[in-house]
Every structure is written in C-alpha cells, then in structure tokens.
Design goal:
The chain has helices at about 20-35, 50-60, 65-85, 90-115, 120-130, 130-145, 175-190, 215-225, 260-270, 335-350, 375-385, 390, 420-430, 455-465; strands spanning about 10-15, 40-45, 150-155, 160, 195, 200-205, 210, 230-235, 255-260, 290-295, 300-305, 315-330, 355-360, 365-370, 395-410, 440, 445-455. By secondary structure, it is α/β, with parallel strands linked by helices. It folds into two domains: about 10-235, 3-Layer(aba) Sandwich (Carbamate kinase), CATH 3.40.1160.10; about 315-465, VC0802-like (2-Layer Sandwich). The strands form three sheets. The protein has an eight-stranded mixed β-sheet, sandwiched between helices. The two termini are about 45 Å apart. The structure holds adenosine-5'-diphosphate, aspartic acid (ASP) and magnesium ion.
Length: about 475
C-alpha cells in the first residue's frame, strides 16, 4: 500500500516501560506526542515480570502443584485490573475488563490441564507464556483510546508467520510481510495505531509460537521491515547501547551510534538490551534502529545503522556471557583433525547450538569451543554419540568439559587495523591477576573473545573497560 506523507515509526516498548499504570500512561503519552508528526505502529512486551511468572506457573502446574499457579492467577489478574482501574474511562473498562478476564480464564484452563496431565508441551507453553503480551496490548490500546488517540490491539499471531520451532521460532519472511501488510492496511487507512503483541507469532496452520525470550525487540523490527518503516525505536530502561552492561560496569556510558554488525555481535554475546536476531530483518532495507529510554525520553539514545559514522579507532564496547562451558575435544591415532572438527560441528549444527568461541590446534589435534550451560546436556549426548567408536576404541578421542567459564568480548568495527588490542587486554587482565583460559579473534576483527573463570567476569570486563578508557 502507498506510504502516507508522515514518516512511519515502529515503537517497541519493553516490560519495564509498561510495568505499572503510571508507566503505561507515560508510554501512551509518548505515543500520542509522536503521533502528531509520524505514523506510529506500536509493539509491546508483557508487563515486567509477567512472562517469568507465567512460565513458572506452567512449570509448577506440570509437576502437579495446584497452589503456585493459582497464586500467579491472582497476581496477574490483580496487576492488569489495577492498570485498567487507574487509567481507563468507564466505557473503555466495559470493553477491556471482559477481555482481560478471558485471558485469565485461558491461563486457568491451560494450567489446570497441565496439572492434570502433568506435562506442558512446548506448543502449549508458547500459548501460555505469551498471554502477558495479549493483556498488555489490550490495555495499552485502550489507554490510548481513553486519551483520544485511535488505536486497536492486534495479536501478532495474525501477523507474524513462523516455523514450528516452539519456544524459539523463526519467522517466514515472505508470508509475514504479506500477512502483516494485508492485516494492518485498513487500520492504517483509518489512522488507527496498531498496538501489536511482541514475542508471539503463529505457524502457517495457526498454532501460537514465540520468538525466544526477549523476542519483542525482534517483533519490532519484523513489523518495521514488513511495513517498510522509516525507523524502528526500541524503548527500554537505559539511555541507549552502552560501552558495557551498566550492571557490571557502573561507569559505562552511552554510545551515540553503532553499526548493524557491532549491534549483532553485542547482542549475540549477551548484551540484553537487544534480542540477538533484532537487526536481521532491517538490514536489507537499511532501516535505522534507535534505542531510547522511556524514563529519559529527551535523551537521543543510540542509533544503529548500516555503518557507524566517525567511529573512533579501537574498542567500542565490551560484553560478556557468563554461564558457559568449555568443551575440549582431543583426537589421537588416525583420527585426523579434519574429521574431529567435521564430526563435532555436524553434531552441534544438527541441534542448532551456538558456539560462542572456537580455538584449535591442528598439530595437537585439539578442538576447543564454548557453549551455553543450557546446551551442555544436548551437546554432550550428541558428541558421545558421534564419537562413540573413537571413545570406545583405544581412546582415540576424549571429551573434557570445563564448567564455570565466562566469555568476555571486545567489539568494534574499527578494531581492524588497530594493533595491540589483544596485547593490551592481556596486560589489563594480567595486572588484576585474572587468568585467560582461551582467546579467539575472527579474521574480520570485529570482536576478540577471552574465556575467563565466571567468578572473574565482572572484574575482567571492568579492567578492559578501564584499559581502553571507554
Ligand atoms: P526491555 O524489557 O526494555 O526489553 P531488557 O531488560 O531486555 O529491557 O534490556 C535492557 C537492559 O539491558 C538494561 O537494563 C541493561 O541492564 C542491559 N544491558 C546489558 N548490556 C547492555 C549494554 N551494553 N547497553 C545497555 N544495556 C545493557
Ligand atoms: N515478554 C517476553 C520476555 O520476557 C518478551 C520480551 O519482553 O521481549 O521474554
Ligand atoms: Mg528485552
């Protein structure tokens, strides 16, 4: 459909930003203000803490515990009801309260089913864990209407088409783009703001899926790409992308501009401010993504674009992934390094496991890689299967696991060609007495990774941050 005169901005609001009646009201005011100058589409997360509560309730219910999910039911009903009471006109309450009650009813039916059969399937978990988004979008759309802004809550199961990998689904872009444009066309023509549920999508045959924890950022850029938006704004609780996680490094500060590649690396290596797949949908159309703070909206935030203008040489940011394990595979006898690596990566690939860092020594026939704690069981089982014969016969292969490892990563497109970064990082860690277990640098030189003990991670990130005076 033809684009309107005004620029189109997709605004995604995270859980903290919609965590209470006041916060939701504040978000509605931001949307109202910007809707004077731009056409807005909103994507919203569940109220802060709600997704965790839903998942916990489902897990407990599937163990046969009836108490836990009943108390979550009360808490969820109370929190959403309180927002409705405090923000909505009587006529809007008449529309919204029955819808909220319906979602609480869905929660109850699902949990009671889980506790009866003592099981929760990944498919049912997705329907349940994303109910928070259905409730928050219903409320936010109604608050906007109460403030005189035409808006309608839209369930992303009607917009985002995915495969059936429940819990971590992958969007089908063509189908999503078509469906999204068709479904939102009439709303846009009428000048109504769609308030879309983040996090959820649906398979081609209509089963609800989710895009992985923190996936509403990804929903935001999927909407932005499908509608060919001019910009995507991700509103959160910090001023932008910072030089390090502010919870680890209190002196971290905001980076005004970073490139898509830098943002992808940062989010892949644990910077929670962005879901790791967020940038993917906007690359082709070069849509800028802004990170902004709902608690400090006058701060411009961070612009993420195809390339970062006037990037300083050297390190731009530091990030870390704490809960990882280092796997060391050693081949002996006639087991060549090539077949050791081929078998190992085939095993990881089959399960779509992320390897966070890889080092090797072909001469010693040793391959070492880091994976997340949560992937250990699956990786070990697969490795033991593919190397079954080698493990049995003459010890031709061995698998060692080192737990409690963290990966610290320095990131910056302009590290390329800046000598001495690895050396300075080594020295900074050495001065603090931090032992480096392994190091890896890609030939693209956009990131350098160091494996350290988990107990050293905070000090390591701080030491490198200080060294490069970020
Ligand atoms: P939302 O609920 O809005 O999606 P998240 O909690 O998912 O927000 O992400 C924002 C949080 O990401 C911040 O509060 C901050 O603690 C954390 N974070 C980690 N690394 C960084 C970083 N490099 N820059 C900014 N925030 C970061
Ligand atoms: N509510 C979901 C979660 O907590 C998605 C999101 O907030 O991005 O993971
Ligand atoms: Mg998030």
């Amino acid at each position: 459909m033809a684009k309107s005169e005004k620029p189109l901005i997709v605004m995604k609001f995270g859980g903290t930003s919609v965590g209470s009646a006041e916060r939701m009201q504040n978000v509605a005011e931001l949307v109202k203000e910007h809707s004077r100058r731009a056409e807005i589409a909103v994507v919203v997360s569940a109220m802060g803490g709600v997704t965790d509560m839903l998942i916990r309730a489902a897990t407990e219910a599937s163990r046969g515990d009836r108490e836990q999910w009943k108390s979550v039911r009360q808490e969820i009903a109370r929190r959403h009801r309180e927002v409705a009471d405090r923000t909505l006109s009587a006529s809007e309450q008449a529309v919204v309260l029955p819808r909220l009650a319906e979602q609480v009813g869905n929660f109850e039916n699902l949990c009671s089913g889980f506790s009866l059969v003592r099981e929760v399937t990944p498919r049912a978990m997705d329907t349940l864990s994303s109910l928070g988004e259905v409730m928050s979008s219903t409320l936010l759309a109604a608050i906007l209407r109460s403030q005189g802004v035409p808006a309608e809550a839209v369930d992303a199961t009607e917009l985002i088409v995915t495969d059936d990998k429940f819990g971590n689904a992958t969007p089908l872009f063509e189908e999503t783009n078509q469906k999204m444009r068709a479904r939102l066309a009439s709303l846009r023509r009428r000048g109504e703001i769609p308030v879309i549920t983040g996090f959820r999508g649906a398979t081609l045959d209509g089963h609800c899926t989710t895009l992985g924890r923190g996936g509403s950022d990804y929903s935001g850029t999927l909407v932005g790409a499908a509608l060919d938006a001019d910009e995507v704004w991700i509103w959160t609780d910090v001023d932008g992308v910072m030089t390090a996680d502010p919870r680890l490094v209190p002196t971290a500060h905001i980076i005004p501009e970073i490139s898509y590649r830098e943002a992808i690396e940062l989010s892949f290596f644990g910077a929670k401010v962005l879901h790791p797949k967020t940038i993917q949908p906007v690359i082709k159309r070069k849509i800028p993504v802004w990170i902004k703070n709902t608690f400090n909206p006058s701060c411009p935030g961070t612009k993420i674009g195809p390339s970062a203008a006037n990037g300083k040489p050297g390190v731009k940011a530091i990030t870390s992934v704490s809960k990882t394990q280092l796997i060391t595979l050693t081949g002996r006898g006639n087991l060549t390094f090539a077949s050791l690596a081929t078998k190992a990566f085939a095993a990881l690939g089959a399960e779509e496991v992320d390897t966070l860092m890889v080092t090797q020594s072909s001469a010693d026939n040793v391959l070492c890689f880091a994976i997340r704690d949560s992937d250990l069981k699956c990786v070990k089982t697969h490795l033991e299967k593919v190397f079954e014969l080698e493990l049995l016969h003459d010890n031709r292969a061995s698998i060692e696991v080192m737990p409690h490892v963290a990966i610290v990563v320095t990131i910056g497109e302009n590290m390329k060609g800046t000598p001495g970064i690895a050396g300075r990082s080594f020295s900074a860690l050495g001065r603090k007495g931090i032992n480096i277990i392994a190091i890896a640098q890609g030939s693209s030189e956009i990131s350098i990774s160091f494996a350290v003990k988990t107990s050293d991670v905070k000090e390591a990130v701080q030491a490198i941050h200080d060294e490069f005076q970020l």
